[in-house]
Each structure stands twice: as C-alpha cells, then as structure tokens.
Amino acid sequence: MTELLTEQCDGVLQLTINRPDALNALNTNVIGLLVDTVREAADDPACRAVVLTGAGEKAFCAGADLKELAEMGADRAHEVMRAGQAAFRAIERTPIPVIAAVNGLALGGGFELILASTIPVLSTRASLGLPESGLGLIPGYGGTQRLPRAVGERIAAHLMLTGSRLDADRAYDLGLTPVPPVAPDNLHEAAMDIARTIARQGPVAVRSILTALEIGRDASLDAALTAETGMAALAIAGDESAEGISAFLERRPPRFVTE
Ligand code: CO8
C-alpha cells in the first residue's frame, strides 16, 4: 500500500501520510514521495493548494523513522538528514500553499514539517514537540532555524532543550497557527475551507505572494521591497488583475483563468 495517499478535487490536492502503525513516521520513501508530489503539484496549473495530513486518529507525524535510522550507518544517516532537510526546504519554498491539517501528535520531524508548511491548522488533539535532544539528536529538518524565527529564540530553546510539548491552544497563542484549534471532526473541513478559499483567488497573485515571502526570508528589506515592486508591476499589467478589478467594478465574482 502506498505510504502517501493522494486525491485531487476542486483544485486542492489532498496528501495523507499513510503509515498509521508507525504513527506516520517519516522514512526515506515518504519524504521522497512528499517532495516529488508537492513539486509535481507546483507544476500543475490546475492544482491551487495542497492539504497535508496524517492517517489515523493519533498522529499527524511522529518524526523521523527511528527504526530506519537505527539501521543506518552514520554516513547514510547524514545523507538522509541532508536529503530530508532539502525536501522540507523545497516544500517551504513551493509556490503553491501547503495547508498542514494537524490531527494529533506532531513530534520531531512532524513538528518541523508544520514549520515548513504555509498555513497549519490544528485539531484540539494536536500535540507538538521536539524530543530530539532526549535521543541525542537535534531537530535536523530545519527546526533549529524555523522554530526561533516563528516563536523567538527563548521559547524555541526551551522547547528544543527540554522536549516539552505544546498543546493546540498554546501553539495558537504562540502564533504557530493563524486559526484557533478546531474539533477533530471539523479539522479536514477547516483545512479544505482555507485551501478552497485560496483556490478562488488570482492564481498568479497567490504564487507571487508566496514567492515574495520566500524572497523575504533571506533578503534585506530593501532588496525584498525591490522584488515586491517588480512583482506588483507585473500583477497590475497582467490579465488577472484586469479581470479581478473588472469583476469588482461590475459587482460579480472574478473568473480567473489557469493556464
Ligand atoms: N519512528 C518509527 N516508529 C515510530 C516512531 C518513530 N519516530 N514513533 C512511533 N513509532 C512506532 C512505534 O515503534 C510503534 O510501533 P510498534 O508497535 O511496531 O513497535 C508504533 O509507532 C506506536 O508507537 P508507541 O507504541 O510508542 O505508541 P505510544 O502511544 O506508546 O507512544 C509516542 C507514542 C510518544 C509518539 C512514542 O511512539 C514516541 O515517543 N515516538 C518517537 C517520537 C520521536 O522521538 N520523534 C522524533 C524522532 S527524531 C526526528 O524526528 C529528527 C528529525 C531530524 C533528524 C534527522 C536525522 C537523520
């Protein structure tokens, strides 16, 4: 059975990490499938958003597959770590939004996957933590860098050094998700709702906003603003804004065209 379930409907690609017996731990196969599928989605104009979740009721993802790791030598583990980090970066910088529907435990690489996603939505059952230091590991899928950027260095240091968990309310209070936690039964619909809303926006505008965010992660404010000016000029000169503004003036919904 495939370890990554895929289903596309109404411009939204739904991905489910399908290893419930291993609490959806990330082995090399799943990481490869994830990054390839997200890249293919980004190349498909009909795909406007991705919703990513974990199979079963207990876990979104319990992190790196420790059984697989234990069987590797140090050189192979290093290779796998580098490939995993590159995969998370590819997911973060993909020009279509990835909505993480966090249905339960998100530990280690599972929490790091949330940090690499565009918009996480948490069920009230979600529990987030970085237990790596207790295993003699470190959060090597971007956690040491993305978590402090998201919540500040002290909170990140506390979480990484102690392995403490965050419940969904605390994660919301810290700004790790923009929406209040939802009841587990409503999680899928809440994530799909955000994805479908994004799918109704101007497709080029959505990609440009994500590209601007990506440029801003690693650039001075002035350099990033210059890039923003270029993208805004392209947007205002394009067919998409002509349609969007006409629709506003004519009091009708816009009809955006995907290539
Ligand atoms: N990897 C592989 N299998 C796992 C993992 C995992 N991360 N987590 C759980 N499982 C498996 C268990 O082995 C078990 O399988 P089996 O029944 O065949 O033994 C099954 O899932 C259910 O797990 P438990 O019986 O342990 O369920 P509990 O409810 O008792 O406990 C916990 C749930 C608390 C989630 C517990 O399973 C746990 O602590 N898991 C490990 C979580 C963890 O430490 N994650 C971080 C991993 S390290 C990481 O992600 C670093 C990434 C970057 C570095 C990469 C370097 C290459």
Automatic annotation (TrEMBL):
Enzyme class: lyase
EC number: 4.2.1.17
Any Pfam family the entry gives: ECH_1
Keyword Lyase carried by entry: yes
One GO BP: fatty acid beta-oxidation
Keywords: Lyase
Superkingdom: Bacteria
Gene3D superfamilies with a match to the protein in the record: 2-enoyl-CoA Hydratase, Chain A, domain 1
UniProt catalytic activity: a 4-saturated-(3S)-3-hydroxyacyl-CoA = a (3E)-enoyl-CoA + H2O; a (3S)-3-hydroxyacyl-CoA = a (2E)-enoyl-CoA + H2O
An example molecular function term from Gene Ontology annotations: enoyl-CoA hydratase activity
Stored CDD domains: crotonase-like (cd06558)
UniProt similarity note: Belongs to the enoyl-CoA hydratase/isomerase family.
PANTHER family noted in UniProt: ENOYL-COA HYDRATASE, MITOCHONDRIAL (PTHR11941:SF54), ENOYL-COA HYDRATASE-RELATED (PTHR11941)
Name recorded for this polypeptide: enoyl-CoA hydratase
Organism phylogeny: Bacteria, Bacillati, Actinomycetota, Actinomycetes, Micrococcales
